[in-house]
Protein: DNA-(apurinic or apyrimidinic site) lyase
Amino acid sequence: MQKILDFDLEQTLECGQCFRWERQPDGSYTGVASGHILNISEENIPQIAQDEFWGNYFDLKRDYAKIRADLSAADRTLARAAQFAPGMRILNQEPWEALCSFILSQNNNIPRIRGIVKRLCEQFGEPIGDGFFAFPTPERIAALEPEALCEIRCGFRAKYVVDAARKVASGVIDLERLKTAELSDAREQLMQIHGVGPKVADCTLLYGLHRLEAFPMDVWMKRAMQTLFPGRSPEAFGCYAGIAQQYIFHYSRCNPELFAQERQHAG
DNA sequence: GACCAGGTATTGC
DNA sequence: GCAATACATGGT
Structure:
């Protein structure tokens, strides 16, 4: 079995694109996607890469070395960011899970987002054995009133999650269709949801619909663009701008000293 | 206690 | 249009 290059579990699962994977004491990661449970480690990557579902989930068929080389050739700083986490891959997460997770991410911090998503799954997701839960379906959440979400402690975001669930469950928004729609149209449709603005829409496009040209612009990316790429715009990074974004986001978060003069106190 | 967290809706100009 | 502000909750 061939060794999978350009794939690192920590870089991929702890770079801020997903919230349900948990690192185990032995360094492996356990998670759930589309109702499937997986434990993945450096040792079993080759086997898992053979599996159609997981191979696609981890985007293992894509030539990230080539993408990284192209991005690196375009910009010296981008080359440094890409080299910082060359094993990072953009997951193929479920569209609804990505939409819902990033609605919950707004004005929130990553550890707390993880806790909210965990409680959401435990309270409203289907048990799939061994104490694991599937991500709750939009239909299940659509049937709730926002008040029913108070036990997951997501605060003012409860009404946003319910609105998203209702628009998806009713077919007002067809997430699958957005995979092939014009990017700007897909973005506008997502922004019909109460609580979905440009940033959450772009996260949904990139992480849930695998639209690799989408470029979510959060506070970190705004700082990074100002400081590291003055005068550049996301479009300059081309059709893989989303991957560039993830390299830059991860690099920035792991090296906050780059922005020391702009931030009073980090973390 | 103030301030912050992978933002967004609302309000006021 | 664009700048200010509230929003739930939990950590520093």
